[in-house]
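Dig into these lines:

——
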Amino acid sequence: MTTTDDSPETESLHYVADVDEITDGDRVIVDVEGREIAVFNVDGAFHALSNYCIHQGGPACEGLISGSLEVDDEMELTYDSTNKVVSCPWHGWEFEIESGEHLAPTDYRLPTYRVVVQDGAVYLDSY
């Protein structure tokens, strides 16, 4: 989740990129203290997830970004393009970008990280 903070404590912040370098619908992957973390821009909001799939350790955030399928009360499938999902390219496990939750059993999720936008730059708070 993105926060805009005028006076963040800079010791725990790690520069990712300038805001205009991560276009809407795109992501960048950075290394922060030995952890690969993906930072996504979804409709101008930035979200950060671990790039380590909880299934078998694949690069969870390097796969396809899409919407999700929802089932309504009449068991009809509908495509929801507002709820963005990333699919691990190894075995297709899908995670909500905003929460890191796995789409099927929601008790699995990728770790998320706080994102700070300040003075036109995107930072990760590693703690």
